[in-house]
Amino acid sequence: MMNWNTLLSAKRFGLEEFHREHHENRSEFQRDYDRLIFSAPFRRLQNKTQVFPLPGSVFVHNRLTHSLEVSCVGRSLGNDVARGILSRRPELADSFLPEIGAIVSAACLAHDLGNPPFGHSGERAISTFFSEGKGLALRNYDGLSAGLWEDFTHFEGNANAFRLLTHQFEGRRPGGFVLTYSTLASIVKYPFASSLAGKKSKFGFFTSEEASFRRIAEELGMKKLSDSPLRYARHPLVYLVEAADDICYQIMDIEDAHKLKLLTTDETRELLLGYFGDERRTHMLETMRRVTDVNEQIAYLRSCVIGLLTSECTRVFLENEETLLSGEFEGPLIRHINELPAEAYRHCAEVSMKKIYCSRDVLDIELAGFRIIGTLLELMTDAVLSPEKAYSRLLIGRVSGQYNIRSLRLGERLQAVLDYISGMTDVFALDLYRKINGNSLPEIS
Description:
The protein is mostly helical and 445 residues long. It contains 20 helices and 2 strands. Strands 1-2 form a two-stranded antiparallel sheet. β1 and β2 (230-232) form a beta hairpin. α2 packs parallel to α5 (100-110) and α4 (63-88) runs antiparallel to α5. The N and C termini lie far apart (66 Å). The relative contact order is 0.13.
């Protein structure tokens, strides 16, 4: 059984020897949040696709605005859960338990940092390049371990985020972002190695970061399920980060689809009102009549749904605290909410799949993402395989010095290629693709 006293730690990854208690207004977990907000990888999220193509004449969500919204919902979930636990276990008041809202908020801010350009299609483009594309020829090269090959063929943004936050890139300090152990553990949705990824290609850390995750998990007292391949039960706060993400992407995608006229106003109203019973629904309709602006009406309904789902997920967490601490809870919190909102959520998911995620604009960006990332991967992997060639030297010369692109080990060079490409924004990847293909040239003054 895991326990809160060990699960919540302000120890910083990479600065363990300097760990001490601080007595300042800003908690260590708030420092995590601030460090992420001011980081370059977080700023780059403003030019990474959430669902709809960027840029557009109608402002819709990108990865940055999505992460900020998830962080807000995560903070509410964490604060509500902390109050609920403290009401029945007041002896935890002197622990870090009152800080759960700050921990979850910071973890939510970081949860998408490892996503490559062009949304989830970017992840699939990287995986399939190695599993069925030209990268498949690399499988039998010397220096590529079975674990590393699993990492490449199941490339996962969540695992890449953990690498980005913990890996010591060239010229950088040990510990990466030097975040607290609890914040780092809270972003790992799939706390197991890539060899356990399965058909969904979900896992939590690359082979290169296995020792780092093991160190964090053991420090926090996370329940180990197997040692080889490495697998742990989730840190309980992962469920709150996941719930905040589930709530936001589902509801905000509906609102964006309305703005882009993929859904009519009537369709959108009915989808959002479907979460509520007759009495609450009547009250909400009366409130809506006070404003005539349609977008304001939809925003009001959206806020009501987010409030309801936050309350529902808080209840599920508190009712299942012991099961969560034992590592035996199954599925996301959103799957265990009451039947009426659960049915409305399922209906929203069905409509989203049919009218949003399969819309022409979304499919076009996925097709473009596959083409762009596949081309960049092909050229960059060729370059690190034959670095002595003139064209290879030109390509390698474009890569930031923080990536170990000139390593003597092939596996590290290929991983540096993935670090470089996954860190790109959509705009940068497209621009580089055009320049490499000769479709555009830099301006010469």
